[in-house]
């Protein structure tokens, strides 16, 4: 938390005019040429200015750099280095030949970043949960939350080992154990001032800084053949960018991927998919693309029900289950079988045929960052215990992905997701696991959806298959 607070200092601003302006900021190509060569790096210097055209003397803007060639279905992120003095180095690696367009988006100015960070850590009530208690045909709804400021008697749902808690107002004449269902809705509450909220109007979010830049031309030149890369495996350090898309296919920087026959690769494997709906997309992909996989009815209901699919001939077992609270959803879901990922991992025996994929993030964005960090640390401890007793178990973290840019930034901005992405990388760096960098992949693909398209899911799963086989 201290590290993050230092990274995001308060930036009060007297007027909108003193905040970063995409239109007034200046980008200079360092060492410009008519033609560039594949494999080279293209460096840009960004000087940010305010709406009055004045140079800014501090950094902290939330920027997104991307290069793309739509005709080639090619894309990659750029690396942004903040010098903390109003200047940034933006570096693109020229992975492919052809006409390449460059983009540098000002997602939020530093003043907006600072406001989002302060507001995020101020309150737990941007989302309110409604719990349904049932006794036979009798149902009662009460308020539930991670933190409940209420004088009423509360039910505490405590994970004793990790001290994770969730609360509901206790209904009269009904026990706490009668909680069966939950849904949530956004509460009309904001911790941003009126002036700060103006920074998050649609016209001020994700503004292109390189509007007038023409595409650059990249040629193969006479560069020597690229040395053969080793196959992707667990424990590899991530690079920035971590790869690029070409012809709709993901190509990592530090290792190589090969096409893999899914049924044979998964033969004899027990696969646990745990987390949010972005990893449930994997479950749906497996069911759609392995025609011998049969769904097993576990007699649960709703979109968030535990899913299991098996191929008895090949002994393939794939299951998905949701993570514990907070779980945001306007549709009512059952909490009879809800449990924290750390407890599920503690129950798994593990072994060389067991694969665990974990994805956490989207549901944590509207809450103070300590909720996410505590959860990530608890999962880390559970993974550490698992690898101690079964070191040949394969554990993979699917990082958070980007999402819609304009929808409700105070609750769901990608800035919140980016901080969680950085925290996750930091927390899990000391364990021998695989990481699927969905953050970098979704920037490279140029998707802005909480549920990325099938092409992205397919390429994420191809990384998994290469880890396994």
Low-pLDDT segments = none
What is the rounded Rg?
24 Å
Strand content: 25-35%
Give the N-terminus to C-terminus distance in angstroms.
38 Å
* Mass-distribution shape: globular
What is the count of DSSP helices, taking H or I runs of 4+ residues? 11
Q: Please give the order of strands in the largest beta sheet.
A: 19-20-21-18-23-24-25
> How many extended strands?
25
**SS-derived structural category:** alpha+beta
Question: What's the main sheet like?
Answer: 7 strands, mixed
| Average pLDDT taken over every residue | 96
State the helicity in percent bands: 10-25%
Core attributes:
single chain, 469 residues, alpha+beta, seven-stranded mixed beta sheet, six-stranded mixed beta sheet, globular
Would you give an account of this structure?
It is a single chain. The protein is globular. Helix 6 runs parallel beside helix 7 and helix 7 runs parallel beside helix 9 (414-427). The relative contact order is 0.14. By secondary structure, it is of the alpha+beta class. It contains eleven helices and 25 strands.
Concise synopsis of the structure shown:
With 469 residues, the chain is α+β, with helices and mostly antiparallel strands.
């Amino acid at each position: 938390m201290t590290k993050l607070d230092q990274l995001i200092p308060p930036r009060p601003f007297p007027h909108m005019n003193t905040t970063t302006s995409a239109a007034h900021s200046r980008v200079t190509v360092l060492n410009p040429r008519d033609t560039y060569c594949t494999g080279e790096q293209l460096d840009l210097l960004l000087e940010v200015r305010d709406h009055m055209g004045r140079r800014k003397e501090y950094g902290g803007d939330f920027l997104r750099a991307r290069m793309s060639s739509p005709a080639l279905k090619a894309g990659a992120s750029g690396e942004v280095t903040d010098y903390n003095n109003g200047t940034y180095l933006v570096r693109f690696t020229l992975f492919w030949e052809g006409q390449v367009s460059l983009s540098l988006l000002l997602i939020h100015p530093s003043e907006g970043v600072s406001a989002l960070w302060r507001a995020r850590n101020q309150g737990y009530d941007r989302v309110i949960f409604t719990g349904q208690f049932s006794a036979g045909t009798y149902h009662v709804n009460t308020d539930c939350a991670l933190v409940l400021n209420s004088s009423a008697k509360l039910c505490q749902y405590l994970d004793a080992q990790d001290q994770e808690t969730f609360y509901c107002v206790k209904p009269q004449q009904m026990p706490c154990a009668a909680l069966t269902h939950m849904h949530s809705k956004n509460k009309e509450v904001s911790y941003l001032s009126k002036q700060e909220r103006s920074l998050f109007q649609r016209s001020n979010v994700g503004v292109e800084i390189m509007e007038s830049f023409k595409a650059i031309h990249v040629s193969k030149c006479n560069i020597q053949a690229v040395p053969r890369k080793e196959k992707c495996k667990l424990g590899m350090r991530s690079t920035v960018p971590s790869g690029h898309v070409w012809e709709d296919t993901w190509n990592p920087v530090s290792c190589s991927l090969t096409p893999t026959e899914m049924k044979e690769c998964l033969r004899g494997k027990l696969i646990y998919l745990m987390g949010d709906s972005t990893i449930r997309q994997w479950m749906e992909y497996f069911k759609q693309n392995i025609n011998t996989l049969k769904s097993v009815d576990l007699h649960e209901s709703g979109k968030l029900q535990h899913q299991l699919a098996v191929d008895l001939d090949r002994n393939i077992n794939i299951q998905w289950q949701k993570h514990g609270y907070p779980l945001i959803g306007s549709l009512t879901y059952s909490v009879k079988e809800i449990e924290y990922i750390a407890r599920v991992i503690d129950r798994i025996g593990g072994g060389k045929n067991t694969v665990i994929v974990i994805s956490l993030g989207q549901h944590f964005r509207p809450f103070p960052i300590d909720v996410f960090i505590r959860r990530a640390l608890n999962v880390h401890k559970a993974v550490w215990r698992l690898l101690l007793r079964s070191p040949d178990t394969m554990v993979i973290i699917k990082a958070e992905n980007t999402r819609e840019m304009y929808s409700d930034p105070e609750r769901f901005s990608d800035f919140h997701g980016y901080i969680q992405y950085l925290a996750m990388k930091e927390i899990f760096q000391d364990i021998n696991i695989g990481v699927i960098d969905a953050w970098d992949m979704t920037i490279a693909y140029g998707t802005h959806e909480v549920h990325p398209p099938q092409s992205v899911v397919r390429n994420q799963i191809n990384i998994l298959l290469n880890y396994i086989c």
